[in-house]
């Protein structure tokens, strides 16, 4: 209905305090005019849609909130694209009454991996993309392309994923000969038993059980494989790995409410949400005062059992380290004009102060720390799409 979430929140608050009479006298009742959207916000929406035509309304809203801290609702994106005639008309789907699938999700990372094989044409021949996905976070722990689909190749991808992300408790696969056999034991099953991993096999002709990785195949096909020209098989392998890194670390996932799979896998979702919401509020003020948003800088990750946030704020770079104990945190501020400030909570008396050397280490950390990146010009996705 075009109603903003903040407006609805205010109505609920007024109703709880004043009842129905308060709503009648409240200036923001139904029918009041919508607040104007800053031109800079509309420009970013149009720019992102033209650069990535396949992105939908919700995905554009997630991208801009995460990457640029822009207060962009789904309704704002829809109105802006409609004004610029950038919305595609969808073909009506025929009515169907399929049985409702049973949804499930594991509670922690590495509790269960899903694995499957996707077949497509590459250089006039069949190519097979074998992948393993963490069920809880939707993080692709590893994926690789081969010219044949054998148990040895599935085992190779599994071993690489284990080396990068650790051993899972369970692996879910279909009943393909690469994973299991109706008589005897495959090399893949032998490896799982050696690692004490429980092997779960889906029912025959029931792909919904592997729905998460099946949805990933649709995503990588539509957003990457049909768009990227490959000049060799080795080039395709390398660029698929680049795109998977983009998927894990930079591409907001709709089922994760705009977070990326790696945010969930490395247990930084809570800290990241705080950083994004705070940045959105600050940029909303910038848009109101000056009409232009600030380009944000932030990194969120983990060091052992501690979460670490590095962000820029009012001419300073701040690093906040939070431990597992409640109300235990340390903050270091580095003034861009010179000078360092170390602030520690009272619960940390006796803890050694953080040093700027830690900040230098974080600057050099690439794959397992998470920066906002530049979604409008992402190096990983650009390198993957182009030769």
Describe the structure.
The chain has 387 residues and is an alpha+beta fold. The protein has three domains: 5-83, no CATH class; 112-255, Ribonuclease H-like superfamily/Ribonuclease H (Nucleotidyltransferase, domain 5, 2-Layer Sandwich), CATH 3.30.420; 262-385, no CATH class. The chain contains twelve helices and eleven strands. The strands form two sheets. It has a six-stranded antiparallel sheet with strand order 10-9-8-7-6-11, with helices on one face. The two termini are 44 Å apart.
Summarize the structure.
By secondary structure, the chain is an alpha+beta fold. It has helices at residues 5-25, 39-51, 57-68, 74-83, 151-165, 187-194, 211-225, 233-249, 261-265, 269-290, 356-364, 379-385, and strands at residues 112-122, 125-134, 140-146, 170-173, 198-201, 298-303, 306-313, 316-322, 329-335, 340-344, 370-371.
Oligomer: single chain
The CATH topology assignment of the largest domain is Nucleotidyltransferase, domain 5
SS-based class: alpha+beta
CATH superfamily annotation of the largest domain: Ribonuclease H-like superfamily/Ribonuclease H
């Amino acid at each position: 209905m075009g109603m903003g979430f903040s407006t609805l929140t205010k109505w609920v608050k007024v109703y709880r305090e004043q009842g129905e009479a308060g709503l009648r006298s409240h200036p923001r009742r139904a029918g009041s005019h919508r607040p104007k959207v800053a031109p800079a916000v509309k420009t970013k929406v149009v720019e992102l849609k033209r650069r990535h035509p396949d992105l939908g309304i919700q995905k554009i809203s997630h991208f801009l909130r995460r990457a640029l801290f822009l207060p962009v609702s789904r309704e704002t994106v829809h109105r802006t694209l409609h004004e610029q005639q950038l919305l595609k008309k969808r073909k009506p789907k025929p009515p169907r009454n399929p049985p409702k699938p049973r949804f499930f999700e594991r509670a922690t990372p590495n509790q269960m991996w899903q694995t499957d094989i996707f077949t497509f044409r590459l250089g006039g021949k069949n190519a097979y993309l074998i992948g393993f996905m963490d069920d809880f976070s939707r993080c692709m722990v590893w994926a690789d392309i081969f010219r044949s689909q054998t148990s040895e190749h599935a085992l190779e991808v599994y071993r690489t994923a284990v080396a990068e992300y650790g051993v899972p408790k369970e692996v879910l696969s279909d009943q393909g000969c690469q994973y299991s056999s109706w008589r005897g034991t495959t090399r893949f099953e032998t490896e799982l038993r050696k690692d004490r991993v429980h092997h779960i096999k889906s029912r025959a002709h029931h792909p919904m059980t592997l729905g998460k990785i099946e949805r990933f195949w649709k995503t990588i096909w539509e957003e990457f494989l049909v768009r990227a020209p490959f000049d060799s098989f080795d080039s395709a392998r390398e660029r698929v790995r680049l795109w998977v890194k983009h998927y894990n670390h930079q591409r907001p996932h709709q089922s994760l409410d705009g977070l990326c799979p790696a945010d969930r896998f490395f247990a930084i979702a809570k800290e990241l949400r705080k950083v994004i919401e705070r940045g959105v509020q600050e940029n909303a003020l910038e848009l109101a005062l000056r009409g232009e948003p600030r380009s944000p800088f932030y990194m969120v990750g983990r060091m052992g059992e501690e979460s670490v946030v590095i962000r820029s704020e009012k001419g300073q770079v701040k690093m906040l380290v939070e431990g597992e104990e409640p109300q235990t945190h340390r903050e270091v501020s580095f003034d861009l004009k010179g000078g360092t400030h170390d602030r520690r909570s009272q619960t940390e008396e006796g803890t050694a102060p953080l040093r700027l050397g830690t900040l230098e280490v974080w600057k050099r950390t690439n794959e397992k720390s998470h920066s906002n990146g530049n979604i409008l010009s992402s190096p990983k996705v650009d390198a993957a799409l182009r030769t």
